[in-house]
């Protein structure tokens, strides 16, 4: 019996997998955005390497599989948090690699497994590019925003149904900003109406919530000409991340100093958005996810919904700028998104004046081409995918029916057609001068 199969010998595969799982759980529990990204990339790299190592031969040595999985995990961690790469490698792959160096346990296969694992970790960049740690560029206004050290003149609404909003966050904000008027809203309450009421008595409008809450508050603030304070308290907080507001501490520091920037706010018909708007399969995906997430949880519901949408959805027939098209997806981002040819991940500039238009066309074998392009990371070169930047766009339903439009992750009906563009005046939003990732708010 070979070394991989000797009873009592074991290579610690289960133990190392458990160690990697514990480290990933600790990173996730930290609540830090970058740590959570590292956990996801590490686990994804580990899963990919395990499958690749298992397919490399009929009976791959268990130490080789262990080395591949653990090295992939460490590589994924290092891509997001470089200072944790070496500890992760020592925890996961160290024992297997040490034995290989000592010529004691499948040295060629273990070293090959480690190389395979590193490659699998690096290959994740094709599907999920790294997000730069620095915030997006934005315009510094020629005037200063109101400084409010204790929250003077601030009306702050906390959406308690948002992803990471909590009683602890509310208590912390009340202690940090004792002069502010703070209102907690629970599920079912009308956030837009509450924001409008609060704004009539305020010189600064604030919101603690996710991207949907921020989008609603931005529409009120830009309409009334008020500066906006954003407290990231949602599941993803894409706008806050692009802005460089990583925590409540960052936002409060900017408010106290009166540091703010001007950013674009886009329009889709009568609705404003700060991140993205889309119609087609993405809207179908959001609606399917919303039906499932009460039973399955958000992330599992998203996976199941994606499978359902790929199997059941049909193309949408739209007229874009007067040209008739059959589309799986129409996407418009508020400012140019990176990377091109892939799922939009981040923006280098929040005040460039453009919409980022992306299309996935339907047609003969379009579904198969789309799936193949996504799986191989070649979407940008696919014939069914098109992208460009524009200052405005006209979208009409060919049959005259309503266009289902998703704005910043929220789905609602639209008119049979709508115009997209930008608010002429930008939104003044608080951001520290030269922001760096801040400490986490207690929850």
CATH class type of the largest domain: Mainly Beta
Q: Which percent range fits the helix content?
A: 40-55%
How many helices?
14
Give the termini separation. 54 Å
Strand tally, please?
17
Task: Provide a descriptive summary of the structure in words.
- There is one protein chain.
- The chain is an alpha+beta fold and 443 residues long.
- It has 3 domains: 3-126, no CATH class; 154-265, Probable inorganic polyphosphate/atp-NAD kinase, domain 1 (Rossmann fold, 3-Layer(aba) Sandwich); 276-422, Tumour Suppressor Smad4.
- It contains 14 helices and 17 strands.
- It has helices spanning 13-29, 33-55, 62-80, 85-92, 94-101, 107-123, 167-176, 191-199, 211-224, 238-243, 248-257, 281-296, 298-312, 366-376, and strands at 154-159, 181-185, 204-209, 228-232, 260-263, 266-268, 271-273, 276-280, 316-320, 323-334, 355-361, 385-390, 393-397, 404-407, 410-413, 417-422, 427-430.
- The strands form 3 sheets. Strands 6, 7, 8, 9, 10, 11, 12, 13, 14, 15 and 16 form an 11-stranded antiparallel β-sheet that branches. Strands 2-1-3-4 form a 4-stranded parallel β-sheet, sandwiched between helices. It has a two-stranded antiparallel ribbon with strand order 5-17.
- Strand 14 and strand 15 (410-413) form a beta hairpin.
- The radius of gyration is 24 Å and the shape is globular.
């Amino acid at each position: 019996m070979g070394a991989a199969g000797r009873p009592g010998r074991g290579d610690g595969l289960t133990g190392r997998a458990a160690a990697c799982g514990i480290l990933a759980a600790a990173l996730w529990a930290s609540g830090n955005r970058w740590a959570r990204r590292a956990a996801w990339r590490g686990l994804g790299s580990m899963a990919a390497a395990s499958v690749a190592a298992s397919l490399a031969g009929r009976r791959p040595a268990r130490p080789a599989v262990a080395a591949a999985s653990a090295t992939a995990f460490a590589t994924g961690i290092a891509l997001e948090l470089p200072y944790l790469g070496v500890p992760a490698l020592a925890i996961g792959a160290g024992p297997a690699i040490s034995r290989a160096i000592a010529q004691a346990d499948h040295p060629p296969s273990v070293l090959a497994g480690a190389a395979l694992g590193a490659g699998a970790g690096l290959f994740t960049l094709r599907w999920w590019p790294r997000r730069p740690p620095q915030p997006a560029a934005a315009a510094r206004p020629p005037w200063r925003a109101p400084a409010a050290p204790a929250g003077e003149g601030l009306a702050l609404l906390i959406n308690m149904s948002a992803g990471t909003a909590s009683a602890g966050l509310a208590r912390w904000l009340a202690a940090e900003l004792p002069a502010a008027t703070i209102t907690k809203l629970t599920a079912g309450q009308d956030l837009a109406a509450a924001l409008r009421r609060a704004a009539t008595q305020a010189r600064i409008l604030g919101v603690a919530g996710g991207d949907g809450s921020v989008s609603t508050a931005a529409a009120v603030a830009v309409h009334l000409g008020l500066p906006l304070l954003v407290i990231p308290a949602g599941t993803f907080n894409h706008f806050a991340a692009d802005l460089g507001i990583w925590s409540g501490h960052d936002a409060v520091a900017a408010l106290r100093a009166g540091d703010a920037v001007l950013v674009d706010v886009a329009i889709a018909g009568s609705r404003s958005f700060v991140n993205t708007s889309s119609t087609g399969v993405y809207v179908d995906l959001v609606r399917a996810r919303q039906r499932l997430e009460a039973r399955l949880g958000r992330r599992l519901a998203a996976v199941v919904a994606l499978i359902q949408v790929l199997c059941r959805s049909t193309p949408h027939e739209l007229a874009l700028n007067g040209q008739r098209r059959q589309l799986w997806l129409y996407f418009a981002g508020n400012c140019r998104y990176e990377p091109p040819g892939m799922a939009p991940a981040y923006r280098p500039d929040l005040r460039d004046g453009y919409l980022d238009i992306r299309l996935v066309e339907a047609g003969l074998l379009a579904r198969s081409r789309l799936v193949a392009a996504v799986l191989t990371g070649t979407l940008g070169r696919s014939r069914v995918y098109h992208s460009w930047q524009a200052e405005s766009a006209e979208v009409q339903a060919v049959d005259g029916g309503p266009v289902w439009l998703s704005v910043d992750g929220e789905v609602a009906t639209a008119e049979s057609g709508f115009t997209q563009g930008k608010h002429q005046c930008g939104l003044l939003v608080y951001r520290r001068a030269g922001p760096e990732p801040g400490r986490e708010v207690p929850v």
